[in-house]
Amino acid sequence: MTKNNITETYDVIILGGGPAGLTAGIYLGRAKVKTLIINEGSIGGQMVLTHAIANFPGVDIDISGRDLSLKMKAQAKAFGCDFESNVEVTGIDLSGELKQVEIDGDEVFAAKSIIIASGGTPRPLGVNGESQFKGQGISYCATCDGDFFTDKEILVVGGGNSALEEAVSLTQYARKVTVIHQFDHFQATEHAIKLAQNNAKISFIMESEIQHIIGDQTLKGVEIMHMKTKARSQVFADGIFIFIGYIANTDSLPDSIILNARNEIITDENMATNIDGVFAAGDVREKQFRQITTAVSDGTIAALSAIDYLQK
Ligand SMILES: Cc1cc2nc3c(=O)[nH]c(=O)nc-3n(C[C@H](O)[C@H](O)[C@H](O)COP(=O)(O)OP(=O)(O)OC[C@H]3O[C@@H](n4cnc5c(N)ncnc54)[C@H](O)[C@@H]3O)c2cc1C
Description:
The chain is α/β, with parallel strands linked by helices. 23% of the residues lie in helices and 28% in strands. Strand 1 (8-15), helix 1 (19-30) and strand 2 form a beta-alpha-beta unit. The radius of gyration is 21 Å and the shape is elongated. The structure holds flavin-adenine dinucleotide (FAD). Residues 15-21, 38-41, 45-47, 49-50, 53, 55, 89, 117-120, 162, 166, 243, 249, 252, 282-284, 290-293, 295 line the site of flavin-adenine dinucleotide.
């Protein structure tokens, strides 16, 4: 993709404006490193999908994901970071000493170092009818769409912390919430499980998997199959919220960057990738725990490693 019409050259370009990218921006800006954060989508990344963040140190336990995102962005901006938000990254060239990023098929920005902090995207169920009703009954974000289901009956798919916490938050709108989970136990903390189990509006269908979505002009429900008995049944609902994990956003990266079998970027403990001057931070990289605090930690290390690289 190497181009000559470069709009502006930076020391570091950060791809992604979630907690990993914003934290890297705070550290780089504060160190007077000329930094651009390029973000597809809304600033804050997955944080803006979160109704309340109770486990980020030093903030109110009911802070919304949006508010925490805005605080992080304001901090990065105050230290001098530039932003290109709600753009599409249409080209990435990591081959030369000066790396290039093209946005919207038009402007090209260059930098000596790149931090990839492009995070993850909700994992789809992959069943018939999902794409037809996406955004029209099927959602991956309780904070964004919960209000549309006021006094309605909804299904929540998944059994991890996100699914149970978002199921609880959806009870402030919905008349009834049914959690459908494929195993006989949850993969969530005791606290999250208790909160969901003690909520009178929530019921559970365990050991069952959705086979397909039922609907014509509008969504009507799902057909499920019991994992052991293989018995099939139908569950009717006005909406479905899916929280079954995330896929790393690595599609737009060049083949030269080494990924694992799940398409996550492989880094060392300093967040360095296999390409000199290219670092990765947050949910996009291979690791076990994906939280805001771990993304923030990765962002810090990636920024300090980039500074080290620039000095050498
Ligand atoms: C519903 C839900 C609830 C959660 N609740 C909590 C919680 O309570 N506490 C907690 O600690 N964690 C929670 N998490 C997890 C936490 O939000 C993530 O671990 C964290 O946001 C990951 O940060 P990140 O910066 O790596 O990536 P992301 O937050 O995914 O941000 C990446 C950003 O990069 C953008 N992007 C994608 N591709 C590109 C590209 N090619 N170029 C430029 N930009 C790109 C994306 O649009 C996005 O804005 C929750 C997640 C979800 C989905």
